[in-house]
Structures are given as C-alpha cells and as structure tokens.
Amino acid sequence: MARRPSSSEPTLVLATANRAKARELQALLDGLPYRVLDLSAFPSCTLPDEGAVSYAENALLKARAVAAATGTLALADDSGIEVDALGSRPGVLSARYGGEGLSDEERCAVMLRELRGVPPERRAARYRCVVALRAPDGREATTEGVVEGVILDGPRGRGGFGYDPLFFYPPLGATFAEVTVEAKHAVSHRAQAMAEARRILLAWAADLPPEPAPR
Predict the structure, then answer these.
(1) What is the pLDDT of residue 1?
(2) How far apart are CA 123 and CA 118, in angstroms?
(3) Smallest Cα–Cα separation from 11: which of 99, 95, 74?
(4) pLDDT confidence of residue 9
(5) Residue 210 has what pLDDT?
(6) Distances from the Cα of 76 to the Cαs of 56, 107, 133, 173, in angstroms?
(7) How many other C-beta atoms can be found within 10 angstroms of the C-beta atom of residue 77?
(8) Which of 107, 117, 121 shows the shortest CA–CA distance to 163?
(9) Are 36 and 29 in contact (CB under 8 A)?
(10) pTM of the model
(11) How many Å apart are CA 196 and CA 208, to the nearest integer?
C-alpha cells in the first residue's frame, strides 16, 4: 500500500506536462517523505522550451523554472532514445522526432520507416534519462540512467509510453510495453536515475520546510 503523504512534509513538484511520465515518476518516488504534486496543481506554471544541447541542461532548465514559479523543490527529467543505425538519433530530440504534435504511435511509425531494411544486428539502441533536482535554496543535483536494448521491426505491447512498444529488452525477452509496470521499474533508465535521486531527496528532506498546498 502506498504511504499517505503528510501536510507537514515538504512539497516536491514534478516538472513535466506528460501525464504518463508524471505517473511513472510518482510511482518511483513512493515512500519518500514528500508530498508529490504534478503541474496540474499549478495551472499558471508553464514549462520553458527545451533546447537540443544535452539531457542534463534540458532537465535543469525545467527544474529551475518550476522551482522559481512555485517556490518548492522541483524534479524534472529529460530522456530519449538513441538508435545506433540512426547515428544516435533522435536522442535529446526524441519528444519532437518526426515533427511537433505527433502522437507516440506516429513517432514510432517514423522510426520504423527510417529503419526499414536495417537488419536486427544493427538495431541496437538505448534509453537514456537524466533527472534534475532544484531546491528553493538553490541546491541542484543531476542523476543519470541508461538501459540497452534493440528496436524491433514492429510495435509489441500496449503498456508504457513513448517508444516502449519498439524497445525490446533482451534480459526480459519483451518490449517495455509488454512487461508489467513493476518489471519496467526494476530495470529502466528512468528507474536507475530515480534510484540515485531518491538517495539525494532523502538527504535533503530534513532541511526542507513544509510548504502549503496550492490553492
């Protein structure tokens, strides 16, 4: 059973507009002494446009903006998929791969078109995630996680989000869209980055004052 947050605990705001990602981050934060909120609790808070420099810079940009706007501790992540046969693309541009406004399914279709005719041995790929933390007092930290896999020639599974239906993880013998949430969280790039972020958040918890809930 998930632990009920207390109003006396410090607030942690998730700096993402992606509801699926927010749910995954909340699950990976379960059990920490924080009241975790997503951006829906702060309707006037908007995220800055991401650049294409690095995962860390993009994550820090979002965490800093949300921390400044809310006056609370903020957590952001930037993640992407790097496909060897595409010269490590789309990388930091994974969320905008193929053009603005595409759905996850449409982005997967773009990737499959680009990889048409590429043999399985050249379809190696990795998911990479950087998590950034920004505290109201200016403290910052970043963590990183990477998981290796293979891009299939067609989607499999209905779970996950993003490129999960194409990302085959050999140790599980399945795509990230075919496995349970618990199985994905045990091995994923985001789970790796969040494991280190949890250790940092535990160390910071005693120093952060409780924040009032947003109105």
Answers:
(1) 36
(2) 7
(3) 74
(4) 87
(5) 61
(6) 10, 22, 7, 30
(7) 28
(8) 107
(9) yes
(10) 0.88
(11) 18
